[in-house]
Amino acid sequence: MATVSELGNGALAELTVLDLSHYVAGAYCGKLLAAFGAEVIKIEAPGVGDGARQVGPFPDRSPDPEASALYLYLNTGKKGLTLDLASEGGAAILKELVTQADVLIENFAPGIMESMGLDYATLSAINPRLVMASISNFGQSGPYRDYRADTMVEMALSGQMYVNGDPEREPLSSTGYQPSYQSALYAYSGIMAALIARDRDDRGQYLDVSIQEAMASEHQFTLNGFTASGKIRMRSGNRYGSVHPTTILPCKADDNGKPGLVSLGISDPTQYVLFLQLLDMSELLDDPRFANPQMCAVNYRDFDALISSWFMDHTAEEIVNALQDNRIPAAFVNEVSDVLDDPQYEFRGFWKEIDHPVAGSHRYAGLPYHLTEAPPVYERANLLGEHTDEVLREKLGYDSDRLGQLREGGVI
Amino acid sequence: MAATAKGPLDGVRVLDLSRVWAGPHCTRILADLGAEVIHISGRRLVGRREVTRETAKVLGTYPDNDPGERHWNRNVLNNDMGRNKLDITLELNTERGVELFKRLVKISDIVIENYSPRVMPNLGINYSVLKAINPAIIYCSMPGYGPEGPFHHFVSYGTTIDPHSGLASRMGYPGEEPHMSGNAYPDPASGMFATGAIMTALFSRYRTGKGQHISLAQAESGTALTGEASLGYQLSGEVPPRIGNGHVRKAPHGAYPCKGDDKWVAISVGTEAQWTNFRDAIGEPGWAVDERYLTLEGRLQHQPELDGHVADWTRSRDAYDAMRLLQDAGIAAGVVVNADELMNDEHLNQRRFFWKFDHPEAGVQTHAGQPIRLSETPARHYRSAPTLGQHHPYVLGELLGLSDDEITDLEETGIIGYTPLVRE
Asked: In principle, which of A82, A152, A304, B81 could form an S-S bond with B24, CB 3.0–4.6 Å?
């Protein structure tokens, strides 16, 4: 057996991954494999590359395909190869690479890989040990297979959106890319399961991940209520379920004038009693409207009005500390800028300083877990086509003449 | 072939001390993939002693709102999380309980818990202790903020992790405060990270023979899932504002009211080609050729008026009709489905996404299936959720070799049991 030091740069160092992703879903999955040392070869169309390069945000709001935050974050640790997969020459090179690959990830619309002659049947004939993962909006089959979607449409059709927001107003999606991220996490686990099975069965397999299904699997509580009793879970505003105060409340601004907000997560009757004691408002327990967290949820407007003066007298930091000292769940309400200064993240070393020749040095979110024997590696994202020559020379033995021809023909 | 294939995690044994959602979501996936997941609970943690019909009705999670004689076996939340798992009880605050747990560690591959970081040390259990018993053990702990550090002691739930992590800042009505997910989304999201980490450790262990400790912080999960935005802030200097269902590069983009009570369709129009198709699809109304809406820039600038026009079109239409009509024209559109519509969704049902489980005490229940769809070693429906303590004979008898008398003695001394204990 290999020792950890023999494994070198991580738990997955023996793996070669062909990452045909664009935008978020496939790219995040490839990034995770790269973090554990897999050689992840990001394959992009010559010239333009991954569409994520056009999204941003960009430094000084000036678009630059090598400085899009979305691309930079999702492609750390990868090698960059350009290849025109739609050309015969490009598809042929991909097939050559497949002979040496363990994993292939793609998130094209269903049918695209097939149209390029690169479907699983073809690729597995070339390399039966290949694990191929396809991530798509609605999966590779069924009536919505060719439907289009973005974050909001996935939030809608997975049932997530209906329960977000105010019951009196329209349901809320989130900005960002949560559905794609979740599908990437399912794909990652599916790939690892397939690799573990490959050790035993000596064959690869195909993985079909639907973004809709990934998100539909992330709110069992909505489904459970319906299957049990026909209950349709409704939006509950900036509160959670049938207990209060599990909510976000305004409080006193801090010394820098930042408007105060604080998060409470009180659902347990004991915590509820302690909370009211702390506010010196235990008499509310005698009022049937506020006798317990369930009743409090029904009368939350009156309750919030009654406790608001105490909250407006204290900053978020004072409130979080006072409540947590009494083991009552409370938390800060952070913007994506605030989390960069979070002392707990600082303590855990969550932020990784990564330098990039175009975008410069910045702090990237790391993985949310530490492995004692397999620490993740964090390296910058590839430039477009940065490793094209290196990969084709080393993997396929191409020489300068061949590379020159391919470049002239627009294949790479 | 696939129907009888062994699951990819066949032969992997998991000791599952996790509770509520984040941890159970992870072990549910491991179980769907064929691992032998033994859920272990202390009976004080199983929940309240009594559930009245009134309470059941408020919660809505007992079949037909009837808690039955043993409500703890009828709660559909627990039965969804517990599917494909085995169950034993064990009082870990007793010497004998811990001793039995350690004997199980010796013959297991993975231990997972999502307690607050003070619980396991209080029981005398930490990674070094487990490693000494079984060097190949993979131990995953996943408290809210991590086992050490200035906030490690914070009491947390998915609902408070959500605003802390920055996730909630990415949801909200225009110009308003961050909005919590209605789903405690950080719970399953952390469960997903834990699943991937455990599989990575397992893959590694098959090569090195060594286990390891996975220390996951749920708050960091949410922050990793908004990593493009925190990096974007550093590049652009701008904190992204809350824009409801709007989009910085697409308009119209939102949820629009449809015929019926609380029915909505989400419509997303980005490129010029999509705008032209959208206009055609809704019958080229006069307003749509207004010069304010000619360019994306104009449409983004005049969103309220534009949204008003789109809502006028959707309001008289069935949400599904609107979705199909727009999708047929190549426009991203989707019904904002509620629980009923989701479970009856024709697409998900054609893909056989939902799994039915027949539970001896809760009857037939439908749960979400497994999005990890592997062609050769598929995730499977092995068994419905166990009843509390159902697998004492297998786990304590067969696996640990305890005699019937010994098991009876454990029962009589309260180390194991079949009913919850009142929480002090």
From this structure: B81
pLDDT in tens, B355-406: 999 999 999 999 999 999 999 999 999 999 999 999 999 999 999 999 999 9
B28-76 per-position pLDDT tens digit: 999 999 999 999 999 887 766 678 888 888 888 899 999 999 999 999 9
| pLDDT tens-digit map of A244-285 | 999 999 999 988 877 899 999 999 899 999 999 999 999 999
Q: Measure in Å the smallest separation between the Cα of A405 and chain B Cα atoms.
A: 35
A23 in contact with B at a CB cutoff of 8 Å? Answer: no
- Residue ending a domain, among A310, A333, A356, is A333
Residue after which a domain boundary falls, among A270, A301, A333: A333
Predicted structure pTM score = 0.97
Token pair recorded at residue A342: 């979070």
**Residue type at A30?**
G
**Has the ipTM of the complex gone over 0.95?**
yes
E strands, B28-85, in order:
36-41
Chains A, B: CB contacts under 8 A, how many? 535
**Chain B residues lying within 8 Å of A152, measured CB to CB:** 245, 247, 253-255, 266, 268, 334
**Cβ-defined contact of A229 to B63 (cutoff 8 Å):** yes
Judged by CB atoms closer than 8 Å, whether chains meet at B183 and A70 is answered as: no
- Measure the CA–CA gap between A19 and A29, rounded to whole angstroms: 9
**Residue given tokens 């026009």 in the structure block:** B309
Q: What is the pLDDT of residue B48?
A: 64
Q: Is residue A132 helix, strand or coil?
A: strand
Domain range for residue A293?
A: 239-333
Give the neighbor-by-neighbor strand order of the sheet with B264-268: B253-257, B264-268, B332-335
What is the nearest CA distance from B402 to chain A, expressed in angstroms?
32
